[in-house]
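REQUEST ID: PR-0412
SUBMITTED BY: lab tech R.K.
PRIORITY: routine
TASK: structure prediction, single protein chain
INPUT:
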Amino acid sequence: MPGGLPRKIGRTVSALRATLDDLRLALSPAALAESGGGLRGGSWEIRGDRLVLERYEAVSGVTLTGSGTERLTLRVGGSEAAHGTVTLRPGGRLSGTLGGRRVSKEAPTIDYAPGTIELVTQHDGSVLKLRKLADDYDPTDRIAAIGRLAEHQAHGEVVTGLLYIDPEADDLHDYLGTVKTPLNQLGDAELTPGPKALAEINASLR
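STATUS: complete
OUTPUT:
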């Protein structure tokens, strides 16, 4: 198997990556939360400066339990996982023991020339076919961007690069009409508009 890992261990490594990606979304500052649940079960919580996971499960059958600050030490369990203990270090390096075998994996990275295709083998043996946009590609053409995605998807390719940008797009804060004060600094008076304001909002949505 590519990377020298047995299939179940390779799949577990890929599941760990997906689980950690899910966790990063949950921990986003935009969420303004100090605890929560996994996509399929378990929980996470911020205790002081430590992140604590309890059977956190984003990929079915793979759970993570453990804690840490910049470095996380995690016990891997679940019905579909190669059990063991791993450590996640800054920069995405994953090392430890899974299924009785030592593993050490860097976060996947790739660099290739514009307009070319690169085949990237994942930890579980699957292969991604990446197509980087050419230098002369116009990212302001919305219709062309949609067509480009459909064209390469038909060939099993994943297009990478800046696909589309609207040069006339409004600022997101202006579009949403948000206030300049950070939301976590607003008090009850600002966050509780009262019955009259709520009635006007509801009326505008009818």
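NOTES: Residues 109-206 form one domain.
REVIEWED BY: pending
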